[in-house]
Amino acid sequence: MGATDTELVVVITMGVVGLGKMGLSHLSIFRAHPEVDLVAVCDSTGYVLDVLSKYTGLRTYKDLSAMLAAEQLDAVVIATPSHLHAPMVRTALEAGVHVFCEKPFTLDDADGQALTALARERGLVTQVGYHNRFVAAFAELKRLIDGGALGAVTHVVAEAYGPVVLAPKGGTWRSRRSSGGGCLYDYAAHPIDLVQWYLGMPTGVEGSRLNRIFSAETDDEVVSTLMYPGDVTAQVSVNWSDESQRKMSTKISVWGTTGRAVADRQEVQVYLRDTAAVPEGYRTGWNVHYTTDLTEQPWFYLRGEEYSAQADTFVGRVANRMTEGPNVFSSAAATDRILSMISADAQGAGGPRERATSTATVAPRRRRRLAFGRGRTA
Amino acid sequence: MDRLLFGDNQFFGVNHMSEEKARSQQMRFQDLGAIMKVLDAAYDEGVTTFMCTTHDRVAEICDLVRADQERYARMEFFPCMPYAHKYANAMTEDGPLGALRRFLPDQSVFSAALTGTKSLASKDIDGITRLLIDAEMSMFRGLRTPVVFLQNVVVDLLLGLGFDEAFVIFADHVRTRYGAEPGFITMNLPRLLDTLERLGIDNPIVCSNINKIGFRMPGGLEAYETALRDRRFRAIAMSVFASGAIPPEEAIDWVCAQPNIESIVFGASSRRNIASTRALVEKSWAPVPR
């Protein structure tokens, strides 16, 4: 759009699959990107395609394979209902196309791992829409934890509340368990992904409950405790039937041996003890940093700087064939794994302990970091 | 348009800096009486235009204003539609079709058409858009609404999609049906001006963040300054205090010194703050009549 032939800008040709709330939003943001030529969309509902084709000049398809065959795409955004992610991502990767997939990545661990391997094998760029990692306040919290400012982390509380399901009705895929609907996969995935980013994989999960408030088939409330080495725990409390909230609010509180921090979309509030290794721009005692101060202006704004930033990151990674980066498939697959551990724990199917053993292989990474954190502040 | 317009974010728990502050405002303005007290204070300070979303709460405010025409003789509303959360939540619950059906009048032919997978002709899109606008406008019946705005979530979504025709449909319907000027709220001012110019929507009213530190001004402060200097449009500045990041006097002095800004929309929760904003604006611009 902004690029001309005379400029040395790599223009990426893209398509969007799935035109619900997220798909339309991605379509708008990516199409506004100066280094993207967004030419095609794919959805199963005819009237959305009719309208877009008539008014926006996009070429429309009802079938992903047909779109991939007819268009020379560099990358696709997949924003279909969650249960369709795995087969569609596979189709796209097999066609040699870079993939941005909405969260959650897949509903089955095995799919997630297979797709991660496939993308790696083909050298393709992958990214999953965990946009909170692009919220400056959450990124700042990551920086504080990794830099040891809070000391060794002892406890985390991860919360998200919002008004999604407020009555016993609903006819979309979000109300169907088999489609990947429900509070755990659709909502709790966000704070859990942040915990996974901050602390890595838990060794197990305990006390998980998936409660129904209004939904007939799916959960509306999620509670769980993620277990980490050294009796470090992360408590998850999520409720999408909370009408006291105007919109989704996600909050992560972290307690460490030398400080405490609370981050949400708007700000990070940090208390540092006089024993803390105080980072630049901070002081002992209370500190408040606002997302708006920490955020760079995007080229285009639709619903938050973080959505623009994640799109821009993906475009940059595709242009430069950077297979490593934020929210790659392997990272999202790890979050998926935690979601299925919680699901199994809640069902009391004997899954959690087995899971805990099977994921123990990733624990050493965490132990190393804990030891590092303690070493710094001792 | 008046130089000062009164916004409604503070009444509905919208705060760009702090969720805590947003919640305490929601508690404070839970009762309509608390909202009316501030609105009356603004009115008595000469800030008689209420630029508001089409929130259910605003319908109650409209009822009160209609009931006391004498007290509110100078009162004008600048409706901003749609109240996006209403649609977003409906879309999550019922999907795009279901959401549309929910907000269209039951007896409407479009409602019937949408029950199937029947494809939509352009005249249907036109008609649906008009019906949605009418549904949003119904709460303002009998009140003065000289400017009607399309909210930034919708404007910027359409802008990114390249769905230009929708701006024309909106502008035409607002003009012909309501005798009002169409207004556009955006977070992407320079880009929107390009599109509106291409569509032949001349000298449009556009409301966007305009503040000294470039807070939420994508494209950058410089691009906005250039637009204000060189483009033909009627600018309304919002977020002039950048959610409290700029001291009031510095913020207003800077905005008032920019060329081509016709109005400032601001929110406040007390008469004291309204009066002080008024005084600051009067220092640079003309007195605000009371």
Describe the structure.
The complex is a heterodimer of chains A (378) and B (290). Chain A has helices at residues 21-31, 46-56, 64-70, 85-94, 109-122, 136-146, 183-199, 291-294, 305-319, 329-347, 351-358, 363-377, and strands at residues 12-17, 36-42, 59-61, 75-78, 98-101, 126-128, 153-161, 204-211, 221-228, 232-239, 249-256, 259-263, 267-272, 285-290. Chain A has 378 residues and is of the alpha/beta class. Chain A has 2 domains: 12-131, NAD(P)-binding Rossmann-like Domain (Rossmann fold, 3-Layer(aba) Sandwich), CATH 3.40.50; 133-299 and 329-377, Dihydrodipicolinate Reductase, domain 2, CATH 3.30.360. Chain A is globular, with a radius of gyration of 21 Å. Chain A starts with 11 loop residues before the first strand and ends with a helix. In chain A, 52% of the residues are buried. Chain B is an alpha/beta fold and 290 residues long. Chain B has one domain: NADP-dependent oxidoreductase domain (TIM Barrel), CATH 3.20.20.100. In chain B, 50% of the residues lie in helices and 14% in strands. Chain B has helices at 19-28, 32-44, 56-67, 84-103, 109-113, 122-137, 152-161, 165-178, 189-198, 221-230, 248-257, 271-284, and strands spanning 4-6, 49-53, 76-81, 147-150, 181-186, 205-209, 234-238, 261-266. Chain B has an 8-stranded parallel β-sheet with strand order 1-8-7-6-5-4-3-2. In chain B, strand 7 (234-238), helix 11 (248-257) and strand 8 form a beta-alpha-beta unit. Chain B is globular. The chains are: A alpha/beta (378), B alpha/beta (290). Chains A and B meet through helix 1 and helix 2 of A and helix 1, helix 4 and helix 7 of B.
Which SSEs are present, and which pair or pack?
The complex is a heterodimer of chains A (378) and B (290).
Chain A: E1 12-17, H1 21-31, E2 36-42, H2 46-56, E3 59-61, H3 64-70, E4 75-78, H4 85-94, E5 98-101, H5 109-122, E6 126-128, H6 136-146, E7 153-161, H7 183-199, E8 204-211, E9 221-228, E10 232-239, E11 249-256, E12 259-263, E13 267-272, E14 285-290, H8 291-294, H9 305-319, H10 329-347, H11 351-358, H12 363-377
Helix pairs in contact in A: 4-5, 5-10, 7-10, 10-11
Chain B: E1 4-6, H1 19-28, H2 32-44, E2 49-53, H3 56-67, E3 76-81, H4 84-103, H5 109-113, H6 122-137, E4 147-150, H7 152-161, H8 165-178, E5 181-186, H9 189-198, E6 205-209, H10 221-230, E7 234-238, H11 248-257, E8 261-266, H12 271-284
Parallel strand pairs in B: 1-8, 2-3, 3-4, 4-5, 5-6, 6-7, 7-8
Helix pairs in contact in B: 6-8, 11-12
